[in-house]
Write a structure and sequence with these properties.
Largest sheet: 8 strands, parallel, barrel
Radius of gyration: 16 Å
Structural class: alpha/beta
């Protein structure tokens, strides 16, 4: 199981939101590249990036910041936010993004995700963001009546690399992940699951590791920035 340190980009800075609210952003660094290098030095194996502005705009916005990160570290990077057509996927893969994350478009056009996964095997992940089990899109601004598990099942055997499951009500709140819902999703599909939202301590990571089903990993942002999770120690625990 892997820890994915998160870099959320808003207006070119590294921020963390509270429950997905853009108005509730805390700035942790004005240099995304320096932050990525710090994660690399601390022993991170992979970096998770979200273009928050892009998620709302429906197209990449923090292009410069993402390029700076890619040019500053050797680590593989997965990127989401505003990726909704093949040209954008081509753009990011060509620049060196290891894995693109499709969220809103996965809900609106599942067939496109399958097409992308066929073109880029193991380089396309699906982001499923949910409130009380129901999917939210457009940077979490729009609530749907689609069940998260039902959406995940649409991508069985499609060749997607992973599903990143975020419980929006836990995101940035430092109240622990929704381990039960994450484990239930992992049992329901044969796609690797990455937990996101609320991972705020080593105990949270242990709970996810020991949830009864193998997860691919967990994403954490605020807890790492605030020193509540040490990347090196966390990765040792997850590998235990």
């Amino acid at each position: 199981m892997r820890l994915y340190p998160a870099i959320d980009l808003k207006d070119g800075e590294c921020v963390r939101l509270l429950r997905g609210e853009m108005s509730e952003a805390t700035v942790f660094s004005d240099s995304p590249a320096d932050q990525a290098q710090s994660f690399e030095k601390q022993g991170a194996e992979y970096i998770h990036i979200v273009d928050l502005n892009g998620a709302f705009a429906g197209k990449p916005v923090n292009d410069e910041a993402v390029r700076a990160i890619l040019n500053s570290v050797q680590l593989p990077v997965q990127l989401g936010g505003g990726i909704r057509d093949m040209d954008t996927i081509d753009h990011w893969i060509a620049l060196g993004v290891r894995r693109v994350i499709l969220g809103t478009i996965a809900t609106k056009d599942p067939e496109f995700v399958k097409e992308a996964a066929k073109k880029y095997p193991n380089q396309v992940a699906v982001g499923i963001d949910a409130r009380k089990g129901m999917v939210a899109t457009e940077g979490w601004a729009e609530q749907t009546d689609i069940n998260a598990t039902d959406l995940a099942k649409m991508f069985e055997d499609a060749g997607v690399a992973a599903i990143i499951y975020t419980d929006i009500d836990r995101d940035g709140a430092m109240q622990g992940p929704n381990t039960e819902a994450t484990a239930a999703l992992a049992r329901a599909v044969n796609i690797p699951i990455i937990a996101s939202g609320g991972v705020s301590s080593l105990d949270d990571l242990i709970a996810l590791r020991d949830c009864g089903v193998a997860l691919d990993g967990a994403i954490s942002g605020r807890a790492i920035y605030e020193g509540k999770i040490d990347i090196t120690e966390a990765q040792k625990l997850l590998n235990a």
